Structure formats: C-alpha cells, structure tokens
Amino acid sequence: MPKVTICVETDDSANQVRVKSWLLKWRDELGGAPENSGCGCCIDMYDVDVPWNAVRDLPETCFAYSDWAEWPSLDLPETNT
After folding, report:
1. If both were cysteines, with which of 4, 36, 53, 78 could 71 make a disulfide (CB 3.0 to 4.6 Å apart)?
2. Torsion sign over Cα 66, 71, 51, 3
3. Residue 74 in domain
4. CB 34 within 8 A of CB 46
5. Of 9, 10, 23, whose CA–CA distance to 57 is shortest?
6. Does residue 49 lie in a domain region?
7. Whole domain around residue 9: which residue ranges?
8. Tell me, what DSSP letter sits at residue 60?
C-alpha cells in the first residue's frame, strides 16, 4: 500500500468535502480516523497508508510531498477497466 500525504486548504470547501467524505469511506482501511497534522487554520493534512484504489478516489491536487509520502514519486498502477 502506498503512503500518501493528503493536504487541503481549509478555505477550499469542495476539496474539504471530498477529503472528509474520503476519510469516512476508507476509515476501516486506515484503521480509524487519521490525525490531522495540519495547523487547522489554513491546511488540514493527513499521513495515511491506503490501497491504490483509495488513492484513485481523490484528485491529485489533494496530495502533497512530505517525508512520509511515497506519492507522487510512485506511478499509479494501471487499472483493468
């Protein structure tokens, strides 16, 4: 499973909704709700280990470089669809 950092600006309401919904959808795979390591006043940031299909559920703009993340240095595997 890839390690990714999700980062979204707090005033980006569309991506905030996407990320919050995504966290709820994938919480079992995440082992619960991940800790928000962002400041909360301008960004929310989460370091997570998730399956590839979970990574595909969010737009690339929701991912950030970090010491934790392997994304975006890894290429997403091809889908069979």
Report:
1. 4
2. negative
3. no
4. yes
5. 23
6. yes
7. 3-64
8. G
